[in-house]
Amino acid sequence: MALFLALNLLFFSLASACNSGCPTPKPKPKPKCPIDALKLGVCADVLGNLLKLKVGNPPVQPCCSLINGLVDLEAAVCLCTAIKANILGINLNIPLSLSLLLNVCKQKVPSGFQCP
């Protein structure tokens, strides 16, 4: 009986042991902006008009046409990159600015998203 238990322990420990053959979980890739962030300078006029609360519709076409076709996460990453690099040329509240720009372009800030 002792031999049986010893062999069982040996086989179970070998079966569950994992040396170099075990797959390691790959980290999730960080989302990247698929467009040149410098092109997002055209969003400065849109954001400036939104922040000054001008009456009427701000010209959103140049800015929104750049991020249309991107999923919300990609668009958020691109705009965060532009805002953090101060490409837009103004000091901004990042979460507010990001939300305003995405909303005017009919996109949403992904749930729980924070600028990287």
From TrEMBL:
Coiled coil: none annotated. Keywords: Signal. Residues 33-115 form the Bifunctional inhibitor/plant lipid transfer protein/seed storage helical domain. Residues 1-17 form the signal peptide. It holds the Pfam family Hydrophob_seed. The keyword Signal applies. Belongs to the plant LTP family. PEARLI1 subfamily. PANTHER family: PTHR31731. This is Bifunctional inhibitor/plant lipid transfer protein/seed storage helical domain-containing protein.
